[in-house]
Amino acid sequence: MNQTRNRLFQNFLSLSVLQGLNYLLPLVVMPVLMQALGVATFGLLSFAQAFIQYFIIVIDYGFDLSGTQQIARHHDDPQKLREIVTHILSLKLLFFIVCFLVLLALVTWVPIFQENRLLFLVAYGVALGQLLMPIWFFQGMERMKYVTIVHLVAKVIYATAIMVVVRQPEDILWVPLFQSLGIIVAGGVSLTLIWKEFHLRPTAVTFSGIKHQLEQGWFVFISNVSISAYTISNTFFLGLLAGPEAAGYYSGAEKIVRAVQGLFIPVSQTLFPYLSKLMHESQERMVALLRKLARWTFVGSALVSVLIAIAAPWLVKIIMGEEFLPVVPVLRILAGLPLLVCLSNVFGIQAMLNLGYRRQFFYILFTGSLLNICAAPFVAERFEYTGVAILLMITEGLVTALMFLFLYKKRIKLL
């Protein structure tokens, strides 16, 4: 028991550092970027990064969760681990190539992509890094300290380079370039660690192995696609229909909220593989742990949401600058995100996926995404970033409520 607790604590600490870098470093870099690039150019950058996220969702497929689950269940079987790693990486490589061909077609024939061809191509380097980055393996093995150190070095170098080099709007290409190089190097080193530290070598790729991985990750993948319809797509539609300046305002406010929300992600990522293993030992114990997690998450995330709403003017002034104070109402609208997203993570990813309700999990997310994707173009064009922020909160609230009601009907009372 003590060994398990120590391992969980080590992984929690590693994931806390990792998520801290992912969410807090952008807050350090954002003031530099906004002052150097200006709102419109920052909005264009956010638009390009949001679009590339669609490709990253395809490349990741559903392996961030399905791969983690499989690695956690077979962590003592080297042959099985080799098969899992080989087939997941093979599929990710295939998806990367297909997505790159699609991007080439877009920057060749579609005007808005043609005009910013180099920006989109350089930004796609992040997708290569995502292909190489096997966080799902280290998370499943509950050995996150390795990948955390690699990420720490890469992220610090990226942030330092941005603050030293980016000085004017014409320097926009340096941002995705440094970001891409950082994650590519981190991914390459992480793969090397898998081969050297865990002595895993590729196995032959088989049709049955490919089919199995596609089946394992399918519902997670389409769920991620659904989630993107009310996260990534909002910035995309704003950039497309309301202009890069509107996208810049919205993206800036959302990044602040997501950074604070990221404080809860290490708990989720640490417990997911543990809950997956616990489910096979005792569903009763797993649900009991989920109940504790849900209650503490509710209290912690509610407090954080209230603090964001109160401190909104100060946060905008410090992070974005006084000229962006009109964004304060948007930040206050989005302040409830940590509460809703953290609860939906417990209800959906931690509970529904580990209990085997993948199909129902997808249907709920699809309902939310359908609402958002139908309304977003109209809202973005008519009400710009304020309307999109309200739409996001309505969508997240609906998803969270539906997940809670589903579990309640199954007599799984987490709150």
Question: Could you characterize the architecture of this molecule?
Answer:
This protein is mainly alpha-helical. It folds into two domains: 1-228, no CATH class; 239-415, no CATH class. It is built from 17 helices and no strands. The protein has helices at residues 2-60, 63-73, 78-109, 111-114, 117-123, 125-132, 135-141, 145-165, 174-197, 207-228, 232-242, 244-261, 265-281, 283-319, 328-334, 337-353, 358-409. Helix 6 (125-132) runs parallel beside helix 9 and helix 14 packs antiparallel against helix 15. The longest helix has 59 residues, at 2-60. The model has no long low-confidence stretch (mean pLDDT 88).
How is the topology of this model organized?
Layout: H1 2-60, H2 63-73, H3 78-109, H4 111-114, H5 117-123, H6 125-132, H7 135-141, H8 145-165, H9 174-197, H10 207-228, H11 232-242, H12 244-261, H13 265-281, H14 283-319, H15 328-334, H16 337-353, H17 358-409
Helix pairs in contact: 1-3, 1-6, 1-8, 1-10, 1-11, 1-12, 1-13, 2-3, 2-7, 2-10, 2-13, 3-6, 3-10, 6-9, 8-9, 10-17, 11-12, 11-17, 12-14, 12-15, 12-16, 12-17, 13-14, 13-16, 14-15, 14-16, 15-17, 16-17
